[in-house]
Write a structure and sequence with these properties.
CATH class of the largest domain: Alpha Beta
CATH topology of the largest domain: Dihydrodipicolinate Reductase, domain 2
Number of domains: 2
CATH architecture of the largest domain: 2-Layer Sandwich
CATH superfamily of the largest domain: Dihydrodipicolinate Reductase, domain 2
Distance between the termini: 33 Å
Number of strands: 17
Structural class: alpha/beta
Strand content: 15-25%
Number of helices: 15
Helix content: 25-40%
Shape: globular
Largest sheet: 9 strands, mixed
């Protein structure tokens, strides 16, 4: 790999270094960047938690986890040993300011080096961790801090978290991560829109009928039940992932792609979202909760059994009809949908264009389908442009829907890197383009909180849907009321 792609030496300090996010995503991502030669020899990865391990014990644990979360063809003994030798472990009790000497000693001989403090822990610990970093002299001008979502659980708590972190770090040092923004297909949406001239004249209410953003998961809450009970689908997915993708679809072209220009345009979209009145919440949102059903042909329990709370009203599904009040998008609905224990695993953005104004081919009435641009995020990253073509053969013109397909692996002959691989390297580079700024987070919460308040005032709880289906019937009614239908994509 070219030396130009190598990042500067740094220390990655992962608070929650033995937790699920660290072992499942962060450490495998850093291992793969090491495998591709992007980490200099001086780079270290320091796990910090209350687990009571030592460095040898931590390395043994990570060795086993890499075997679980890195594919076999990407694991090689030389890289594995090199990466494991980068690892160190310190015990830190966030609640005890006197318990930070181990981390102080670990970083003492690295004055001036870039320090990345990754807070892979509960949002309630973000403020105390940053305060202790400052009290112990560990945060300096070269430091960056990475915050996992959700940032708070409502607007007031989000502001409190931002204030606490902002009291220690400058805004330019704070990286609020949304891993969906690191996906190649999401980034390629910007390139598709702004590096190709044929789409921009059509990218508005004159040509686009509606937009759908779907994130369906076939799994239940699993081991995240405790977290999910306090979050739900709205806080876990809508406030961040879905609204960020909406922003990239709807934003105006920036003057150029720069650290702040993209985030400036995303903020304008969030500020232009039509406010949700109580009547809008009742009519334009659907909350659901999965019950017992079938997954992969096997019986699975409902959410209440998964979290061992028979009275839980936490939503595992949400569908929302949103509108953007500006000239480009006036009258174009954005349908957002996400849920757990759905009938498929699929994340996609669907931009559906308006039908042809006049069916000019004899017998074609009702036989042509609208043009659609489908951006697939998972299970396979790619893009499909659905068109209408003539079916070959004599005897008149017969119309047939066809698609122009872009499969990233087939086209570029290599798998796309995991989103965390890209984003972690951007943190070291100090490039915040694909991260959320404080005003973005708070603007998103301001809009989402209107839904939360509406739900609290309503006596209607989440609609039940059987596991292994595509959500509650009310969600189908939500979109069919407008004469439209949910796009059901590729299964996995």
């Amino acid at each position: 790999m070219s030396p130009a792609t190598t990042v500067e030496p740094c220390d990655f300090v992962v608070f929650g270094g033995t937790g699920d996010l660290a072992v499942r995503k962060l450490l495998p991502a850093l291992y793969l960047r090491d495998r591709d030669g992007q980490l200099p020899a001086e780079t270290r990865v320091i796990g910090a938690s209350r687990a009571g391990l030592d460095t040898d014990g931590y390395r043994d644990k990570v060795r086993g986890e890499l075997a679980r979360f890195v594919s076999g063809d990407q694991l090689d003994s030389d890289t594995c040993e090199r990466f494991l030798n980068r690892l160190e472990y310190v015990t830190v009790d966030v609640a005890d300011p006197a318990n930070w000497t181990g981390l102080q000693d670990c970083l003492a001989d690295r004055e001036g080096a870039i320090r990345v403090f990754y807070l892979a822990c509960a949002p309630g610990l973000f403020g105390p961790i940053c305060e202790n970093l400052a009290l112990n002299g560990l945060a300096d001008a070269q430091s960056r801090v990475v915050l996992e979502k959700p940032i708070g659980h409502d607007l007031a708590s989000a502001r409190a978290v931002n204030d606490a972190v902002g009291a220690v770090f400058e805004e330019s040092q704070i990286f609020r991560i949304d891993h969906y923004l690191g996906k190649e297909s999401v980034q390629n949406l910007l390139v598709t829109r702004f590096a190709n001239t044929f789409l921009e004249p059509l990218w508005n209410s004159s040509s686009i009928d509606h937009v759908q953003i779907n994130v369906a998961e076939s799994l239940g809450v699993g081991s995240r039940g405790g977290y999910y009970e306090s979050a739900g689908a709205l806080r876990d997915m809508l406030q961040n992932h879905l609204l960020q993708m909406l922003c990239l679809v709807a934003m105006e072209p920036p003057t150029y792609v720069d650290r702040e220009t993209v985030r400036d345009e995303k903020l304008k979209v969030l500020q232009a979202l039509k406010p949700m009145s109580p009547q809008d919440v009742e009519r334009c949102t659907v909350a659901g909760q999965y019950g017992p059903g079938l997954a992969d042909g096997k019986a699975v329990p409902g959410y209440q059994d998964d979290v061992e709370n028979p009275d839980s009203t936490t939503e595992t599904f949400i569908a929302v009809k949103a509108e953007i009040q500006n000239w480009r998008w006036a009258g174009v609905p954005f349908y957002l949908r996400t849920g757990k224990r759905m009938d498929r695993r699929c994340s996609e953005i669907v931009v559906q264009f308006k039908p042809v104004p006049h069916p000019m081919f004899p017998g074609s009435e009702g036989h042509s389908e609208p043009n659609r641009l489908v951006i697939q995020l998972q299970p396979h990253e790619g893009m499909r442009l659905h068109m209408t073509a003539k079916e070959p053969g004599p005897g008149g013109i017969r119309l047939k829907p066809v698609s122009l397909d872009l499969n990233y692996i087939e086209t570029f002959k290599r798998p796309s890197p995991d989103a965390y691989e890209r984003l972690l390297m951007d943190v070291v580079r100090g490039n915040p383009t694909l991260f959320m700024r404080r005003d973005e987070v708070e603007a998103a919460w301001e809009w989402v909180e209107q839904i939360l308040v509406g739900w609290e005032k309503s006596e209607r709880g989440p609609r039940r849907y059987p596991a292994g289906t595509n959500g509650p019937t009310d969600a189908t009614i939500l979109i069919e009321r407008d004469g439209r239908a949910w796009h059901e994509g590729v299964t996995a």
